Amino acid sequence: MAQTDRSRRSFLAALISLLAGGWLVGRFLTPKLRPKNTLLTVAKAELPPDGALVYREARVALMRRGDSVYALDLVCTHLGCTVNVTPTGLVCPCHGSRFDREGKVLEGPADRPLKRYAVEADGDRYRVLV
Ligand code: FES
């Protein structure tokens, strides 16, 4: 009988340890999914075809090219100046980096493309998500 009690206790202790270990692994090793926040909401009709809307305070440009709508972060990837949007691309006034309308580097010193934000169509509006 004593042998059975010890065996049962060992089994329960092992089971509790396994569950606690599984919980700890799940708690600390799985990434947390954060809901995205809306940075901007823009009426679809405001965004011209093959054009851009620039929000300098938010340092974001909402761009349309054909059917594709995307948002670029206007923070230069070199040292963080605000990039200007021109009809042909994006130009940083601080050290002259140039980017194409997709945000890819055309000319340094910046060596990384501009960050993109997710854009979600929501009825008659676009929502730029961060
Ligand atoms: S901060 Fe833009 S090129 Fe230097």
Automatic annotation (TrEMBL):
Q: Superkingdom of the source?
A: Bacteria
Q: Which UniProt keywords apply?
A: 2Fe-2S, Disulfide bond, Iron, Iron-sulfur, Metal-binding
* One GO MF term attached to the UniProt entry: metal ion binding
Q: Which cofactor does it need?
A: [2Fe-2S] cluster
**InterPro entries per UniProt:** Rieske_2Fe-2S (IPR017941), Rieske_2Fe-2S_sf (IPR036922), Rieske_Fe-S_prot (IPR014349), Rieske_Fe-S_prot_C (IPR005805), TAT_signal (IPR006311)
Q: Name the PROSITE patterns on file.
A: RIESKE, TAT
Rieske domain ranges (all copies): 39-128
What CDD domains is this protein classified in?
Rieske
> What would be one Gene Ontology cellular-component term for the protein?
membrane
Q: Which PANTHER family match?
A: CYTOCHROME B-C1 COMPLEX SUBUNIT RIESKE, MITOCHONDRIAL
Output this protein's name. Answer: Ubiquinol-cytochrome C reductase iron-sulfur subunit
